[in-house]
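For concreteness, we quote verbatim a single protein encoded this way:
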Amino acid sequence: MTTMTTTTTVTRGNTARIRAVGLAELKLFARNRTAMFSAFAIPLILAGAISTSGMADSDDLATSVAVVTSLLGYVLLAAVYYNLVTTYVARREELVLKRLRAGELSDATIITGIAAPMVAVAVAQMIVFVVAGAILVGLPAPVNVPLMVFGAVGGVIVFVLLAAVSAVFTRTAESAQVTTLPVLLACLIGSMIYPMMDDAPGVVVALLRALPLTPVVDLLRLGWLGTTGESAPVGFAGTFADALLPAGILIAWIVAGLWAVRRTFLWEPRR
């Protein structure tokens, strides 16, 4: 009983600390008009673009789902990855990370707490796009909702970790525009063209499949339609077998990201 009580107390304490760091970060985020615009206005603009794109009149569900899931991938890159790289670097250079680490907060609590507002924004944006896809485009009900949730949550974790790693190579918040380009371009181009590369050499397909965003998009499409476009749609149970490869790649990215953050994350300004 004592062990259970202690564990519960520690868990509540960590949750409270993460909430406190997150709320402080949220106040700073709310003062950034550019970030607020990209967080709330852009999703509505894109949702409106979906409704007027003519996809609602299209019988090609695979194309419509591909567009919506690509927008979900864009959320991970813009709202989570890019914004967090600039945030981690800014807090590091302002000595905020150093001061937080000097207190009672664990490393994981600090990194998670700072990421919390961006993650909340990303989740809200994803909900907007999913609802827009269902209502404005008339997409069918998902075949496997848990699989979609797993893909989305796993994607958030991966890009939070990638942001923390990319911050190591970023000297200032302004230079994040350059240091984030490799990941942004690889994912925006590679992961989006991957479904159309059926005739490409096996090595190229394997490289595109291994990109951090590709398994996320694959799991979202598989959970929604029961197929990634490579085969005929399957039912709820059948999607789990098809999900093994993208899920394995996603988990591998999470493990690699955790290892890299533990080994390389900088808590003090770069000299």
